[in-house]
């Protein structure tokens, strides 16, 4: 009985460590399968910059690659006016597979990034907790290998975003800008 109780307590502690910030991570995460090109289909956030800019946002491409030391290089290319901008980020792996950290060199904000769920070939749901001196915020991204996803995947993104405390006004399915911009941006 004593061994059973210790086993249960051990499992409870392990579960608490994995969910210490309340955001789940893909079980059996396989980082090499996450690499490659993705389209950012959905974005949800309760940050002030998102509230101010969400009406201007469009679908963008994101390329994920693994660095020599096992971290992730994340390069997003998005339309801004009549140009394309690139943003590079280095996601540092943590002890928990599927969880990464990032510090913005521009803003000094600290990001805890979780690959919540993915099937690697179709979609990935990624959640980020952002902390900065002025407060914290949550961001959820929906990546797709193609420019469209099934209604079930879109609904899962919306449902998960709501579970993170985001409202319908803070959840956006990003519009596609058309082929001409993508050819110029890639």
UniProtKB/TrEMBL annotation:
It comes from Hemiprocne comata. GO terms for biological process: mast cell degranulation; prostaglandin biosynthetic process. GO terms for cellular component: extracellular space; Golgi apparatus; nuclear membrane; perinuclear region of cytoplasm; rough endoplasmic reticulum. Residues 35-177 form the Lipocalin/cytosolic fatty-acid binding domain. This is Prostaglandin-H2 D-isomerase. It is an enzyme of class 5 (isomerase). Transmembrane segments: none annotated. Its EC number is 5.3.99.2.
């Amino acid at each position: 009985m004593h061994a059973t109780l210790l086993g249960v307590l051990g499992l409870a502690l392990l579960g608490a460590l994995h969910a210490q910030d309340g955001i789940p991570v893909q079980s059996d995460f396989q980082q090499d399968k996450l690499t490659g090109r993705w389209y950012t289909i959905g974005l949800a956030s309760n940050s002030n910059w998102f509230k101010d800019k969400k009406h201007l946002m469009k679908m963008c491409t994101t390329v994920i690659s693994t660095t020599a030391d096992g971290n992730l290089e994340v390069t997003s290319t998005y339309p801004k006016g009549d140009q394309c901008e690139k943003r590079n980020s280095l996601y540092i792996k943590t002890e928990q597979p599927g969880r990464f950290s990032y510090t913005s060199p521009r803003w000094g904000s600290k990001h805890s990034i979780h690959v919540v769920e993915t099937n690697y070939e179709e979609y990935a749901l990624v959640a980020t907790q952002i902390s900065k001196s002025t407060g914290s915020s949550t961001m959820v991204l929906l990546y797709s290998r193609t420019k469209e996803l099934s209604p079930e995947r879109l609904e899962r993104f919306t449902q998960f975003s709501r579970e993170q405390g985001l409202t319908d006004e803070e959840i956006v399915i990003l519009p596609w800008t058309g082929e001409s911009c993508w050819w110029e941006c890639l």
